[in-house]
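Entry 14. Structure prediction run on the chain below.
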Amino acid sequence: MRQKTHLVTALAFILCIGISISAAAYNEHRSIQYTAIDLFVIDLDILSTGKSESSVRAVASDVSYTMIIDLTLWQQEGSRWTVEKTWNVTTSSNTTLKKSWYVEEGYSYRLDVKLTVYDCNGDEIDAAFSRSPIVNY
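Output returned:
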């Protein structure tokens, strides 16, 4: 019984150390990755009608910040990617953005989004990039 107690205690200790290390690594990665971006999520959906919907949800860490969002919708033909449509939007520090464009059937598409954050002096203070999964239509 005594060995069982020592084994359970040792396993609990190892588990706690592992969780602490994982949490510290996550927090360190998160703080290094973005300093002024609290949320950045993109999505590409293509409806049966051929209407593509490019969505961006972005939140800066301060309400005084301005964001510029550059969206690029790409079309794949064979192994080659070409630009189908681009949008450039300047917005406040908290935004949900949706852009639509009709696409051709028989191709694959992806969305690239660059988010740039500026402080109240107009200085760039953070930037992020995200690419959607490929959507076949």
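DSSP finds one helix and eight strands in the chain.
Filed with the rest of this week's runs.
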